[in-house]
Amino acid sequence: MKLADRTSRISSSPTMKVTATVDRLRREGVEVIDFGAGEPDFATPAPVKAAAHDALDHDFTRYTPVAGIVELKRAICERYRHDYGVDYKENEVIVTAGGKQALYNTALTLFGPGDEVITHAPYWPTLTEQIKLADATPVLVRTHPEDGFAIHAKAIVDAVTPRTRGIIVNSPCNPTGALVSESELAAIADVASARHIWIVVDLCYEKLIYDDVPHNLPGVLAEKCRDLTVLCGSSSKAYAMTGWRCGWALGPAKVIAASVALQSHETSNVTSITQKAAVEALTGSQAPVKAMLDEYRKRRDQLHAWLSAEPRLRCRKPAGAFYMFIDISDVLAVDGFRTSIDFADALLQESRVAVTPGEAFDAPGFIRISYATSMENLKEGSRRLLAFVQKHAPKTTYA
Ligand SMILES: Cc1ncc(COP(=O)(O)O)c(C=O)c1O
Predict the structure, then answer these.
(1) CB 128 within 8 A of CB 107
(2) What is the number of helices (H) and of strands (E) in the chain?
(3) What is the CA radius of gyration of the chain?
């Protein structure tokens, strides 16, 4: 049976594979500590759920405009105006089924055969797969653990060729937790502007930044190259709404109109009830976002302290998102595991702890721990992880 060529160019989401394995084991009655999940463990805030109930009670259950209800488009524009001082109009925003669809629509709208699209690695795998789905070619610029996986403008600019059509920046970055600095982004934007290259920013973790550091990426891009910028955001991580599927893209009217046309033949509007809930999330009190961030910070610090007991699990505290990205190459070097996939498989089989191997993010030798789980799980999971490492690579071998 012959499938279309594009199916052989794309592999299914490796991060979702971990989730599926954990699901299967749990259904078989196996108790697993899940450090794989890339989603908040918190409940969606009560007022957001109430808005959805209200929408149902009022039979708000029909098709909406493809780009989203006006109320929600206004709420998104107002949120970005309030948070970043940027000005977007209703025809410059589309509501999508998660940030994933915002990025996908954008890739299909902007990129095509023969185009190169630069992004930074390690990366969230969907970004490169979407570039390929658009028949374009991903060009990877490596970031490095030594400087916290910082994104350097020079490295990005050095990768630009006459075929470069776009640059995708993810900040905070999944899996590294790194933020791009405003000055580095400004330097990238200068080159993009001079060479008419699109800049797409994946801001899905924008509300999960631990310190009060400057991160007004929309403001920088509005000043430098607004006409070449698409901002993709999401309610998933900030408001604990992953299952509701609501994201958005903000960009030039022409780009958004093309995205709307695509989406009109793909999925039409985002679920009507979800849209009403998202209005509440964006316009209501932002206190739940802060409360969740405060809790993630505590978990990050505690997890880091626990893991520091084993210096061969090399990691830094991430600046954003909720992942600890750990260099395990020192452990791999001695314990007979060839790859971090082997390591993650054995950790799951023997110790019942699920982590995502670095290969999923083009970073062999690493594992990613999501700390979007309870402190209790983090404590028990780290205990098991440390015991696993000690068993397979006893410290005495280093004496
Ligand atoms: C970097 C990054 N961007 C975008 C998304 C998309 O999330 P959603 O489609 O739920 O908004 C994710 C989800 O894991 C992500 O990690």
Answers:
(1) no
(2) 15, 12
(3) 21
Q: Report helix, strand or coil for 384.
A: helix
Upstream peptide bond of 394 is cis (omega within 30 degrees of 0): no
Q: Which residue has the tokens 């060479």?
A: 195
CA distance 129 to 136: 10
Task: Indicate if ligand 1 lies below 6 Å from the C-beta of 38.
Answer: yes
Centre of ligand 1 to C-alpha 399, Å, is: 43
| pLDDT over 90 at 8, yes or no | no
* Longest distance between any two alpha carbons in the chain, whole Å: 70
Tell me the per-residue pLDDT of 154-195, one tens digit each, with 9 for 90 and over.
999 999 999 999 999 999 999 999 999 999 999 999 999 999
The CA 174 to ligand 1 mean position distance, Å, reads: 8
For a mutational test of ligand 1's pocket, the pick from 174, 176, 203, 244, i.e. the residue with the most ligand atoms closer than 8 A to its C-beta, is 174
What value does the mean pLDDT take over residues 74-91?
A: 98
Residue 204 Cβ contacting ligand 1 at under 6 Å: yes
